[in-house]
Design brief:
Elements: E1 2-7, H1 10-18, E2 27-30, E3 37-40, H2 42-46, H3 55-58, H4 61-64, E4 68-71, H5 74-88, E5 94-99, E6 102-106, H6 113-128, E7 132-137, H7 140-155, E8 167-169, H8 175-183, H9 195-203, H10 209-213, H11 217-223, H12 226-235, E9 253-263, H13 266-286, E10 289-300, E11 310-321, H14 324-338, E12 345-357, H15 376-389
Parallel strand pairs: 2-4, 7-8
Antiparallel strand pairs: 1-6, 1-7, 2-3, 5-6, 9-12, 10-11, 10-12
Length: 431
């Protein structure tokens, strides 16, 4: 048995925790540089705002429909996500954090699953203010489908039985009730069924999840793919996707950003790649790896007039490392090699390549007067301080002063305070 715990309209819900005045109003959270909608409240969805809608196309709704547009506050969302996932872990003995707002819970040995799920959901809402939907099923695909039903039944009363709202346990339904629920759910709502596959299924007179469940898996494999066959078997109650409670280390780590305005000078570009390399190094140490090569790139916008620039370079590292100083220095070397004056650069980034485990390191003979002191304890202290007091509390000097607005920073004109990670942004209660 599996459960999927999913925060409802997560980014918007995080904003509403600290601004209750947003409750009941149409709200969208915008992507980097306030480009397009990446999260929508139910009220915004009711206005017909689609996911990914450019802000300049819907901005007029601020005046006629009361739409509120907010810049993404990923520091706040990340912290609220950690709190929600730590509480969701109390539902069962194992957990796989699938995304910032979703986690699968293994329910082996858990009794009274539906009742316990309601208790955990109430606890998450009471302790964090984040409303959740919880879906329960015999497989991860069924749990994902049950989560969709739970959230839809709450958002659209009458679409499903009222007792399935907020928490839906498909495994507890009688066979006739389960068939009725699956028969009213379209195939495109199934996890892993994309738009093209859904269109092909409809052409084959397979419209609902119940139609898909009743198909022969071997036929599905011959006509479509082994991936869809696995989905059908999961819907039939045969687990094919195991709980990944210890994700494998990433083979590449990247940190890239678009700038709030075009950059033409080398100095702010050096600040930017210093920040990107520092963030990537932190992720590298977190998964216990070392990088053997570093790629740095920069380019102009393909949509703006003017001369084009799009270059990258791979900088080999003499020794695999996770040292922030070494990686920042390599990023500087790479940027200086590709940089050219006269271009309006709009994006840059750093990628760490050829990753190896930190526990396996190839040493070399010490034949040169080379200062290669072990700074792993310093890096551990750096991560510990930044983990406790917030990202960037301690940083390399080349990233620039954090208290000043960096020239290369993203455009976030509508960002709310980082309520839970900065003392300066702590909400103040007045009598």
């Amino acid at each position: 048995m599996y459960a999927l715990v999913d925060g409802n309209n997560f980014y918007v819900s995080c904003e509403r925790v600290f601004r209750p005045s947003l409750n009941g109003r149409p709200v969208v959270v915008l992507s980097n540089n306030d480009g397009c909608a990446i999260a929508r409240s139910n009220e915004a969805k009711a206005l017909g705002i689609r996911m990914g809608a450019p802000w300049f196309e819907i901005r007029h709704m601020e005046f006629g429909d009361g739409l509120v547009g907010l810049s993404a506050n990923f520091v706040l969302y990340g912290d609220m996500s950690d709190r929600m996932h730590s509480l969701a872990a109390g539902l069962g003995p194992t957990q796989e954090i699938y995304s910032i707002d979703e986690s699968f819970i293994g329910l082996h040995g858990v009794r009274n699953v539906t009742h316990r799920a309601h208790q955990v959901r109430d606890r998450i809402y009471q302790w964090t203010g984040i409303p959740c939907g919880i879906g329960i099923g015999q497989t991860k695909t069924l749990a994902k489908l049950a989560n969709h039903i739970a959230k839809t039944a709450e958002r659209k009363p009458g679409s499903y039985p009222a007792d399935l709202a907020t928490v839906c346990n498909l495994a507890a339904l009688p066979a006739s009730d389960l068939d009725a629920v699956l028969g009213t759910t379209l195939v495109e709502e199934v996890w892993g069924v994309g738009r093209k596959i859904a269109a092909q299924l409809h052409e084959g007179d397979i419209h609902t999840v119940l139609d898909l469940v009743r198909m022969d898996p071997a036929t599905v494999r011959r006509r479509w793919s082994v991936v869809l066959e696995r989905t059908v078997r999961e819907l039939q109650g045969m687990p094919c996707i195991e709980l990944d409670d210890a994700p494998s280390p990433k083979k590449e780590i990247a940190c890239t950003r678009s700038f709030g305005k075009p950059i033409t000078d080398l100095y702010p570009m050096l600040q930017a790649v210093s920040e990107f390399a520092s963030r990537a190094a932190e992720k590298l140490r977190k998964q216990g790896s070392l990088a053997s090569q570093l790629l740095v790139f920069a380019h102009t916008s393909p949509f703006r007039p003017g001369p084009r620039f799009n270059k990258s370079v791979v900088v080999p590292l003499r020794r695999p490392t996770a040292d922030t100083g070494d990686l920042v220095l390599a990023a500087h070397h790479g940027l200086r090699r590709i940089y050219a004056e006269g271009y309006d650069l709009i994006k840059a980034g750093v990628m760490l390549l050829d990753l190896v485990p930190a526990s396996v390191l190839q040493h070399e003979l010490d034949l040169e007067d080379d200062d290669c002191a072990d700074r792993s304890k310093l890096m551990t202290a750096l991560d510990s301080i930044n983990g406790r007091y917030g990202k960037g509390t301690v940083h390399v000097a080349s990233t620039g002063a954090t208290e000043k607005v960096r020239e290369w920073g993203m455009r976030q004109e509508r960002r709310t305070p980082q309520y839970t990670t900065r003392w300066e942004d702590l909400p103040m209660a007045r009598a």
